[in-house]
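Many introductory courses stop at the sequence. We go one step further.
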Amino acid sequence: MSKTLRRNKTLDKAKALINGPRAEEYGEALTTHRNIATGWNIIAKNALALHGEITAGHVALMMDWVKTCRLCHTISSEDGWLDKVGYSSLGSEFSIAKDTKDN
C-alpha cells in the first residue's frame, strides 16, 4: 500500500471515529479539551514549581485527568475506570523511583 493510500485510510478512519463513536462517548471535543487543559495546567505548574520538571509520574497523573474528563461525560464507561486504575498504578510505581530521571 502506498504512503498516500495508507494516510488516507488512517484519516478516513479517524474522521469516522471523531465524528461518531468518540463524539458520542466523550461529548463535545472542545469542551473536553478545555477541561483537560485546565487540569494539565495545574499539574504542570505544580510539577515545575515543586520538582523542576514534568516527570513520568506527572504524565501518569495527566493521563488520569484525561480519563476523568471523559468520565464526566460518560460516567458508566468501564474502560475509562479501568484506564484510571491503570494510570494510578503506574503513577504510584513511577513516583517512588529513586532517581527522578528514571521517573
